[in-house]
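Review form for a predicted model. The reviewer records the input and the model, then writes brief findings.
Reviewer: anonymous (R2)
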Amino acid sequence: MKNACPCFSGKAYNDCCQPLHEGQAAPDAERLMRSRYSAYALKLPEYILHTWHADSRPKSLTQEDLSGIKWLKLQVLSHEQPEADTAFVKFVATFQSGKQKKEQLTEYSRFSRASGHWLYVDGQPD
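Model under review:
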């Protein structure tokens, strides 16, 4: 697919994560997580910070902080929403740092909804 979304949804970027990167609210935690993965892949630090809960967000994140890692694939394993404003997404992200071998990060991420917007709170490696 031409201009496939980096989040591996099978959709075109302009029909998937781009509207979220341009300010549209994510309808659920999985879509937010996918858009954040795409933002890492596309090196969009402002979006990553904007969608990170204030209680756990780093003070800064720059383009330089995101360089050196190539994000290769995303697999969403589960999405749970046990409460109206709390959700969890488990995923596996494949990446490569420099000329190193491919590695995988498996994370169980927690999301919270405030004022109608989903935010990434934190994650536990699996």
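Findings: The chain is about 20% helix and 40% strand.
Further findings: Helices lie at 18-21, 29-42, 45-50, 63-66.
Recommendation: see findings above.
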